[in-house]
Specification:
Layout (H helix, E strand, L loop, with lengths): L1 E3 H8 L3 H9 L7 E2 L5 E4 H15 L4 H10 L3 H35 L5 H4 L9 H8 L1 H13 L2 H23 L7 H14 L7 H13 L1 H8 L5 H16 L3
Antiparallel strand pairs: 1-3, 2-3
Length: 248
Amino acid sequence: MEWSIQDIARKAGTTSRTLRHYGDLGLLAPSRVGSNGYRYYDQEALVRLQRILLLRELGLGLPAIAEVLDGQRDTAGALRTHLALLEQERERIGRQIASVRTTLRKTEEGEELMAEEVFDGFDHTQYEQEVTERWGRDAYEKGDRWWRSLSAEEKKAFQDKQIRIGEDFARALKEGKAVAGDEVQDIVRRQVEWLSVTVTPSRSYVLGLGEMYVADPRFTATYDRHGEGTAVFVRDAMKVYAERHLTD
């Protein structure tokens, strides 16, 4: 079974122009083109479009989506990853909604608020298992102790520093700066210093982290919100820095 480009655009809530743009970029090739020039899409193309739309909703730019799709040949495995991420996000948002509802009700009724209720869904420990699996239990516990020791002002200052670094990476990309140039490498130095608060960055650590910025939609979205393609730019710049300055 196949569908015309107009059918797919209507069902997906997008436009024919967008689908043609995806095709021009190599993201979504039609399964065939009719003698009249119309594009048609089969079931495999539909699944690929679903993956593109999911990644877009997670905040990825088109260059990053292309890299993700090219690196995930196992469609079923990729969809399971998407599903898990969406379910995690649904759970997190559900907890935040419940938290705000509780805060609103207790505020209106003059009841005492519990900190655990107010901040449910905003807890960084949701990443405990993932951090432990990637870098070990000691890494998580060290980072957790350090984070809990900070005041609210210190936490905000730490987060704001990373936001500024991300903005500077995006600005350098927009201005056409070379990833190996002094200006970009100085931004990477600040990034590595920011990371050094809780870890001792090795070459393999920084290389692996850079790859994760592109491979993991959550990290890609964090950087690409400053400008499409920023995550890839950061990864490439970090690779240069790691190979120049770090050892394992």
